[in-house]
């Protein structure tokens, strides 16, 4: 879902850049998410995964949040 949302955001705003699509980078991110989870529940009860600044995107984008669908 993170990859899908990142692709949708890029389609809506070509100035956005995410460092996804590289198998090695994604494997490292997946490991980090499971070892050091950074998330919260939003008002809709969805898990929102938070990637700190510079983790999956350039610093100008700040922390990146992705709401994970309950479906």
Broad structural category = alpha+beta
Shape: globular
Biggest sheet record: 3 strands, antiparallel
Which strand order spans the largest sheet, edge to edge or round the barrel? 1-2-3
Question: Helix share of residues?
Answer: 25-40%
Number of helical segments? 2
Low-pLDDT residue spans: none
Evaluate the radius of gyration. 12 Å
Strand segment count: 3
Strand content: 15-25%
What is the end-to-end distance? 11 Å
- Could you state the order of secondary-structure elements as H and E? HHEEE
Q: Which whole number gives the mean pLDDT? A: 87
Question: What would you say about this model in short?
Answer:
The chain has 71 residues and is an alpha+beta fold.
Please render the helix and strand layout as text.
Elements (H helix, E strand, L loop, with lengths): L1 H11 L10 H13 L3 E3 L5 E5 L12 E5 L3
Antiparallel strand pairs: 1-2, 2-3
Could you explain the architecture of this structure?
With 71 residues, the chain is α+β, with helices and mostly antiparallel strands. It has 2 helices and 3 strands, in the order ααβββ. It has helices spanning 2-12, 23-35, and strands at residues 39-41, 47-51, 64-68. Strands 1-2-3 form a 3-stranded antiparallel beta sheet, with helices on one face. A hairpin with a 5-residue loop joins strand 1 (39-41) and strand 2 (47-51). It starts with a helix and ends with a strand.
Note the main attributes of this structure.
71 residues; alpha+beta; three-stranded antiparallel sheet; 2 helices; 3 strands; globular
């Amino acid at each position: 879902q993170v990859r899908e949302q990142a692709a949708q955001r890029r389609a809506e705003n070509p100035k956005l850049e995410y460092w996804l699509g590289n198998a090695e980078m994604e494997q490292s991110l997946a490991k980090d998410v499971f070892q050091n989870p950074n998330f919260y529940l939003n008002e809709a009860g969805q898990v929102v995964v938070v990637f700190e600044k510079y983790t999956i995107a350039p610093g100008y984008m700040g922390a990146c949040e992705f709401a994970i669908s309950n479906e």
